[in-house]
Amino acid sequence: MSEVDQLLSKRPADRYIKGVQLGEGTYGVVNKAIDSKTGQVVAIKKIRLGAQKEGVNFTALREIKLLKELKDPNIIELIDAFPHKDNLHLVFEFMESDLEAVIRDRNIVLSPGDVKSFIQMTLKGLAFCHKKWVLHRDMKPNNLLIGADGQLKLADFGLARLFGSPGRKFTHQVFARWYRAPELLFGTKQYGSAVDVWAAACIFAELLLRRPFLQGSSDIDQLGKIFAAFGTPKTAQWPDMLYLPDYVEYQFVPAPPLRSLFPMASDDCLDLLSKMFTYDPNVRITAEQALEHRYFSSVPAPTKPAQLPRPPLKGDKLSDGNQQKEGPTVMSPARKRLKAQRDGLSMVDDHVHDRQTTGGNTGKSETIPMSVDFSAFGSRPPPRPTLNSADRSHLKRKLDLDF
Amino acid sequence: MAANFWTSSHWKQLLEQEEVDVVHSPDKERGLTVEEFKYIKMHMANYIWKLAQLVKVRQRVVATAVAYMRRVYTRKSMTEYDPRLVAPSCLYLASKAEESTVQARLLVFYIKKQYSDEKYRFEIKDILEMEMKILEALDYYLVVYHPYRPLSQLLQDAGMTDMTHLSWGLVNDTYKMDLVLIYPPYMIALACIYIASVLKDKDTTAWFEELRADMNVVKNISMEILDFYDNHKILPEDRTNAIFNKISKS
């Protein structure tokens, strides 16, 4: 072993050459870096130790625990972990983009084969989790990362957990609202992998529509949106519904034909979609079964990952000093950064359409403050709700005390 | 669950007895014998058990904590990693990993309340520092499988749920040994059922045959457990202290 190697192996932190900041996650900063040993580009999450009070962050620990067991082409790889200066650092494979960026990019056209490929990779990752008895519980386009080779990978396992023993009670405050299954919205505490399948169905629909499918503004409204799309469930369809903790009766609305919601989708596509959107979680298709569905064997074939359309990369060279101006690479869960970038893009649009803006302060500055409210422009869909802080703290309490 | 275990990191990390019974060089230099090494691990398993009763955590958390502690000492010396700090830190980490967090200050409070011995006393920051070192020593592998779930399933299958109490107690005692590092949990469960059935004079030959489990392994584990019951003893406090003095930094 050479002297250099010895030095490197002594301090794992020195092995990685730190690059630009990619974003700020729920529990720390994410930086791009290069592994000096292998030359591999990685993303390093620094886990802040909350003022030395309760040690390693609970969410981070959960992610470490599960990702160490989950090695699959469609699940983000936790390459390494090391402590440095009292902080824990997690080394992930570097991912170029995420599915939300793909869906939102208006310059990208998604062919039926592309959609099939994206949802197939999503279901493959999910099926692997479920096989290992892991519930993801936070499936949404923003948590599906896309690598340079086009592979889609499930990320952000901070809410995930093992669901080995049947009948174990969990909190229902999981998932961003638009991706929450009806049984969760009715307050069930005993649920299984079907909740992830519902969320995957929402992502499937979002790929087809190029906008979030069921955009509820509250939990009650979310159920309303679901029922408006698929009809109010009848007891025959979902016998257990009446016994769920937060069940309330909704006015009956009939289901419009699914075809009317997705006019461009093939019959196979609609059939799979309807099976993933089945009300009764016990009847809902599993991720494993969904992958066997004829949708995936019929033409067109799923596009090869390397040939999938990708959003343009914006100055993400490690040495690029213009990073600040051009906007950082999208990196989940860097919600705020991502939003800033999106707003930036839309704003360019608005200039093209020569809209009247009120302040006139947007013309000159290149860097766009991320907290500015652009809703006045009116062209944007409402912001996606993630778990709000009340949900988070509720969740944390439940998870910490329930067992 | 079994299919799940065979692809787990736990399965891949199982060791041979000879690999587990290695006294690391800093400890060896201080004259620690294999027997003493084993004794301290048992002593600390009991300590974790007592602490867990005070802070009231699930059985599973205790079992995971003991498994962490035993894994740590397959890689680290007791001289460098003081067992009296490693034990509560493992309980702390296990409580988080098993989703029933215990606050570090609560642990510190109970240790101070119950143990007058200065050598057992640590501050919150010591536990948090050790937590990080344990994570590193475990190479961040935190999922541990235990014999408890297969035990209930197997007893149900055999129609011998009346033996739950006895075999459950046997499983608890296996954590005083290194079995969790060496054998798959369902094999340990089978061995405990085997011992219980022999003790209770139940004929389980047909059932074991039908299972097609490797009876050699089951019997080996059973022998180890019985040997343990025959030979283990709690040493008087001064003897225990003498062993600890060997590995204490002074």
From TrEMBL, chain A:
Assigned keywords, A-Z: ATP-binding, Kinase, Nucleotide-binding, Phosphoprotein, Serine/threonine-protein kinase, Transferase
Protein kinase domain residues: 16-296
GO MF annotations in UniProt: ATP binding; cyclin-dependent protein serine/threonine kinase activity; RNA polymerase II CTD heptapeptide repeat kinase activity
Matching InterPro entries: CDK (IPR050108), CDK7 (IPR037770), Kinase-like_dom_sf (IPR011009), Prot_kinase_dom (IPR000719), Protein_kinase_ATP_BS (IPR017441), Ser/Thr_kinase_AS (IPR008271)
Biological process (GO), any one: positive regulation of transcription by RNA polymerase II
The keyword Hydrolase is annotated on this UniProt entry: no
Domain of life: Eukaryota
Any one Gene Ontology cellular component term annotated for this protein: cytoplasm
Reaction catalyzed: [DNA-directed RNA polymerase] + ATP = phospho-[DNA-directed RNA polymerase] + ADP + H(+); L-seryl-[protein] + ATP = O-phospho-L-seryl-[protein] + ADP + H(+); L-threonyl-[protein] + ATP = O-phospho-L-threonyl-[protein] + ADP + H(+)
CDD domains: STKc_CDK7
Family listed: Belongs to the protein kinase superfamily. CMGC Ser/Thr protein kinase family. CDC2/CDKX subfamily.
Protein's UniProt name: Protein kinase domain-containing protein
Lineage per the UniProt record: Eukaryota, Viridiplantae, Streptophyta, Embryophyta, Tracheophyta
From TrEMBL, chain B:
Recorded coiled-coil stretches: none
The entry's keywords: Cell cycle, Cell division, Cyclin
InterPro entries per UniProt: Cyclin-like_dom, Cyclin-like_sf, Cyclin/Ssn8, Cyclin_N
The keyword Cell division is annotated on this UniProt entry: yes
Residue ranges of domain Cyclin-like in the record: 46-136, 149-227
MF terms (GO), sorted A to Z: cyclin-dependent protein serine/threonine kinase regulator activity
GO biological process, one term: regulation of transcription by RNA polymerase II
Pfam families from the UniProt entry: Cyclin_N
PANTHER family attached to this UniProt entry: CYCLIN
Family: Belongs to the cyclin family. Cyclin C subfamily.
Protein name, UniProt field: Cyclin-like domain-containing protein
Lineage, broadest ranks: Eukaryota, Viridiplantae, Streptophyta, Embryophyta, Tracheophyta
